[in-house]
TrEMBL record, chain A:
It comes from Microbispora siamensis. Residues 413-447 are annotated as: Disordered. Binds 1 [4Fe-4S] cluster per subunit. This is 3-isopropylmalate dehydratase large subunit. Its cofactor is [4Fe-4S] cluster. Residues 7-453 form the Aconitase/3-isopropylmalate dehydratase large subunit alpha/beta/alpha domain. The lineage of its organism: Bacteria, Bacillati, Actinomycetota, Actinomycetes, Streptosporangiales. Belongs to the aconitase/IPM isomerase family. LeuC type 1 subfamily. The gene is leuC. InterPro entries: 3-IsopropMal_deHydase_lsu (IPR004430), Acnase/IPM_dHydase_lsu_aba_1/3 (IPR015931), Acoase/IPM_deHydtase_lsu_aba (IPR001030), Aconitase_4Fe-4S_BS (IPR018136), Aconitase_4Fe-4S_dom (IPR036008), IPM_dehydratase_rel_enz (IPR050067), IPMI_cat (IPR033941). NCBIfam families: leuC, PRK05478.1, PRK12466.1. It holds the Pfam family Aconitase.
Automatic annotation (TrEMBL), chain B:
It comes from the Bacteria. Residues 1-117 form the Aconitase A/isopropylmalate dehydratase small subunit swivel domain. InterPro entries: 3-IsopropMal_deHydase_ssu, Aconitase/3IPM_dehydase_swvl, AconitaseA/IPMdHydase_ssu_swvl, IPMI_Swivel, LeuD. Heterodimer of LeuC and LeuD. Keywords: Amino-acid biosynthesis, Branched-chain amino acid biosynthesis, Leucine biosynthesis, Lyase. Belongs to the LeuD family. LeuD type 1 subfamily. HAMAP family: LeuD_type1. It comes from Microbispora siamensis. Pathway: Amino-acid biosynthesis; L-leucine biosynthesis; L-leucine from 3-methyl-2-oxobutanoate: step 2/4. It is an enzyme of class 4 (lyase). The lineage of its organism: Bacteria, Bacillati, Actinomycetota, Actinomycetes, Streptosporangiales. This is 3-isopropylmalate dehydratase small subunit. The gene is leuD. Transmembrane segments: none annotated.
Length: 461, 195
C-alpha cells in the first residue's frame, strides 16, 4: 500500500525503532526564541551537557520585543532577552537580536531564509511551528523539556501521529482568503478535532494558494488540535524557495527538487480520517467566541447558546458570550471594535501587508490600527514597495517586527474590555491583554474593519 | 522528575471545556527565566473571581484536577505544567487533552488521565457533593478508583514505565548516541545548516 506524505517524511527521520518504544526521530532544524528556552539551557548546564548541533539551530527575539524603536523598558522582559543572548553566545548558536536585519517572528524568518524546506523535521518551543508544514515538512511545537532534549541530542522520542486528510474541494471565491478557509475548517472540526493527527491539506483550493497562504493555513493547524499540518510541495513551493539564502544551489538544487517531487501522498495511500470542505461555499469568516472554533461567516449573527445540542459546547458558548460582552442574534457586522491588529506568524508576511494596504489606500482608519511586519525582512520589503506610506497616510501605526499584539507579553496589548479585530491566531480570554476581547479575522477584513470601526468585509466598503 | 506509581488525593472539579494554556498560566508569567514560582500564576485571571473553584477553601490541598474536555489546548508553554505541579497537582483528569500539554506533562511527572466524559462528570459530581472525596489514581494498574467507581485508563507502556521510574528522557536517548551519529552520516547532502 502507498504511503501518505506524513508517513514518508517521518520514515526518513527515524534514527531508531524498537518494539514498545516511541521512534527516535531526527530533527533537521531547531528554532529558538527567548520565552521557552532559558530553562532548557539551564538544564543543559546543570547536567554538564552541550548543544549537539548548533549548526542546525537558530534563535531570534520575538515574543517580548517592543514594536517601537528603543530598549525594552520592562526589566523582566529585558532579562529574558538578555538571557537568550548569553545562552546563544555560550553555546555558539546563531541569533538575530532586536534591531538586526534578520530579526523577526520565529516562524516568519525560517521560510524567509530558506531554512524551511520540503521533507524536513522542524521543531520549536512554540505551538505555531506547524506553520512550516506548508513546505511539506513535519513541523510541530514542543515544550521546554523537549527543547532541552533536542538541544542535547538533536532528536526526539515520539510516536507517529495518525494521519488526517482535509480535502478542500472547489475554488475559493474572490475575496475569500486562506485565513477564512482555516477559520472555517476549525469551526467545522472543533478545537479538539485534530488531536493526535498530522493533517494534510489537499485539493484544488489548497494547490492554488500561494506559499504565504499555505503558511497561514498550516499555522493554525494547532488551533484545531492537530500536532502538525502539511501541504505537499509543488512548483509553487520550489519557486518560493529558489534563490533564498539557505536554499540549495546548482546540482544540489536539482537533486533536492527531484527528491521533493516524491513528497506527495501516493494515490493508493489511506488516511486514518478524511474531512471534506467545500471552498466554493465559503465567505469571509470571523470568530465570535473565546476559542478559535467559535467562528461564523461574517454575514451571520452571534449564535445563541441554545443552537448547540452538545451541553459542553452550549456551556462554552454561554461563557464565551458573557466574556465577549455579546448578545445572541447580534449581526456580526454590527460589532464595534477599538483596535485593529495586522501581523503575527499567521498573517505578518508581505502578501498580508499588501492585502491590507490595497484596502487602506486612499482611505482613513477610524480605530487604533497597528500594522506589524512579521520580520525586519518583511518590513524592508514593504517599505521598498511604499506600503508603509499607505498605512501612515490612512492613519495606521507602522511598527517594528515582533509578535506584538498576538499575545500579552510585550507593550502591545488590549485594555480590559477593549475589543479587537486581529489577524492573529488565538481569541482566548485575555490573550491580547487581560480582559481584552478578540475577533480573529483575515488581513482584508481587518483593514476594512479599521475603516468602518465595525467588523467589515472589503466588499462592504 | 519524580516517579509516579499511585496517588490518592482529593479533587477539584473544574467544569469548563477548552481550558487553554493561556488560562492555566497567562503569558505575562512566561517572562521568568527560572523554573519556580509559577503556582502564583496558576489560573491567575480566573482566581480573581472569588467564586472560582480554586478559591473555595473546601478544596484546599486537593491534588487532582478534574476538568472538562480539551484541557491544555493552545500554546506549547510547559510553564502550564510547572504551575499546576507547583500549586500541588499531581494528576489532571479530562476526556481530551491538547497533545503538546499532554506530552509536556509526562516529561515532568504530572499524570494526564483520559477518561470518558460521563466518568469525568461522575468524579466532578462526587467532588462537588463532598470535597473530602478521595480519588486514587493507580498508574501500575492503569485505574482510577473512588468509592464504588472503578475506571480503567489507557497509557502506552513506554510512557508508563518512564513515569514509574521517574526517568530522564535525555539520559535514555544518549544511550543511543551511536545510532544518532550513524543517522547523521547518512543525511541528505542538500539539507541546510544555520551557519
Amino acid at each position: 500500500m502507498g504511503r501518505t506524505l506524513a508517513e514518508k517524511v517521518w520514515e526518513q527521520h527515524v534514527v531508531r525503532r524498537a518494539d514498545g518504544e516511541p521512534d527516535l526521530l531526527y530533527i533537521d532544524l531547531h528554532l529558538i526564541h527567548e520565552v521557552t528556552s532559558p530553562q532548557a539551557f539551564d538544564g543543559l548546564r546543570m547536567a554538564g551537557r552541550t548543544v549537539r548541533r548548533p549548526d542546525l539551530t537558530i534563535a531570534t527575539e520575538d515574543h517580548n520585543v517592543p514594536t517601537v524603536l528603543g530598549p525594552i523598558s520592562d526589566p523582566v522582559s529585558r532579562t529574558q532577552v538578555e538571557t537568550l543572548r548569553k545562552n546563544a553566545a555560550e553555546f555558539g548558536i546563531r541569533l538575530h537580536p532586536m534591531g538586526d536585519a534578520g530579526q523577526g517572528v520565529v516562524h516568519i524568518i525560517g521560510p524567509q531564509f530558506g531554512l524551511t524546506q520540503p521533507g524536513m523535521t522542524i521543531v520549536c518551543g512554540d505551538s505555531h511551528t506547524s506553520t512550516h508544514g506548508a513546505f511539506g515538512a513535519i513541523a510541530f511545537g514542543i515544550g521546554t523539556s523537549e527543547v532541552e532534549h533536542v538541544l542535547a541530542t538533536q532528536t526526539l522520542p515520539a510516536y507517529r501521529p495518525k494521519t488526517m486528510a482535509i480535502e478542500v474541494k472547489g475554488e475559493l471565491p474572490v475575496g475569500v482568503t486562506a485565513k477564512d478557509l482555516i477559520l472555517a475548517i476549525i469551526a467545522k472540526i472543533g478545537t479538539g478535532g485534530g488531536q493526535g493527527y498530522i493533517v494534510e491539506y489537499r485539493g484544488e483550493a489548497v494547490r492554488k494558494l500561494s506559499m504565504e497562504g499555505r503558511m497561514t493555513v498550516c499555522n493554525m493547524s494547532i488551533e484545531a488540535g492537530a500536532r502538525a499540518g502539511m501541504i505537499a510541495p509543488d512548483e509553487t513551493t520550489f519557486e518560493y524557495l529558489r534563490g533564498r539564502p539557505h536554499a540549495p544551489t546548482g546540482e544540489a538544487w536539482d537533486r533536492a527538487v527531484e527528491y521533493w517531487k516524491t513528497l506527495r501522498t501516493d494515490d493508493d495511500a489511506e488516511f486514518d480520517k478524511v474531512v471534506e470542505i467545500d471552498a466554493s461555499a465559503l465567505t469571509p469568516f470571523v470568530t465570535w467566541g473565546t476559542n478559535p472554533g467559535q467562528g461564523a461567516p461574517l454575514g451571520s449573527a452571534v449564535p445563541s447558546p441554545e443552537q448547540f445540542a452538545d451541553p459542553v459546547e452550549r456551556a462554552a458558548a454561554e461563557r464565551a458570550l458573557e466574556y465577549m460582552g455579546l448578545a445572541a442574534g447580534t449581526p456580526l457586522r454590527d460589532i464595534q471594535v477599538d483596535t485593529v491588529f495586522v501581523g503575527s506568524c499567521t498573517n505578518g508576511r508581505i502578501e498580508d501587508l499588501r492585502a491590507a494596504a490595497e484596502i487602506l489606500r486612499g482611505r482613513k482608519v477610524v480605530t487604533r490600527t497597528l500594522i506589524v511586519p512579521g520580520s525586519m525582512g518583511v518590513k524592508k520589503a514593504a517599505e521598498e514597495e511604499g506600503l508603509h506610506e499607505v498605512f501612515k497616510a490612512a492613519g495606521a501605526e507602522w511598527r517594528e517586527a515582533g509578535c506584538s499584539m498576538c499575545l500579552g507579553m510585550n507593550p502591545d496589548t488590549l485594555k480590559p474590555g477593549e475589543r479587537s479585530a486581529s489577524t492573529s491566531n488565538r481569541n482566548f480570554e485575555g490573550r491580547q491583554g487581560k480582559g481584552g476581547r478578540t475577533h480573529l479575522v483575515s488581513p482584508q477584513v481587518a483593514a476594512a474593519t479599521a475603516v468602518t470601526g465595525r467588523l467589515t468585509a472589503p466588499a462592504d466598503l | 522528575m519524580d516517579a509516579f506509581t499511585t496517588h490518592t488525593g482529593r479533587a477539584v472539579p473544574l467544569r469548563r471545556s477548552n481550558v487553554d494554556t493561556d488560562q492555566i498560566i497567562p503569558a505575562v508569567w512566561l517572562k521568568q527565566v527560572s523554573r519556580t514560582g509559577f503556582e502564583k500564576g496558576l489560573f491567575a485571571a480566573w482566581r480573581e473571581d472569588p467564586s472560582f473553584v480554586l478559591n473555595d477553601p473546601a478544596y484546599e490541598g486537593a491534588s487532582i484536577l478534574v476538568s472538562g474536555p480539551d484541557f491544555g489546548t493552545g500554546s506549547s508553554r510547559e510553564h502550564a505544567v510547572w504551575a499546576l505541579q507547583q500549586y500541588g497537582f499531581r494528576v489532571v483528569i479530562a476526556s481530551r487533552f491538547g497533545d503538546i500539554f499532554r506530552n509536556n506533562s509526562t516529561k515532568m511527572g504530572l499524570l494526564p488521565v483520559v477518561l470518558p466524559e460521563d466518568v469525568v462528570e461522575r468524579l466532578q459530581d462526587a467532588a462537588e457533593a463532598d470535597p473530602k472525596t478521595e480519588i486514587t489514581v493507580d498508574l501500575m494498574e492503569r485505574q482510577v478508583r473512588s468509592g464504588d467507581l472503578v475506571a480503567s485508563f489507557e497509557i502506552d507502556d513506554y510512557t508508563r514505565w518512564r513515569l514509574m521510574e521517574g526517568l530522564d528522557d535525555i539520559g535514555l536517548t544518549l544511550r543511543h548516541a551511536d545510532a544518532i551519529e550513524e543517522y547523521e552520516n547518512g543525511r541528505q547532502p542538500w539539507l541546510p545548516t544555520t551557519v
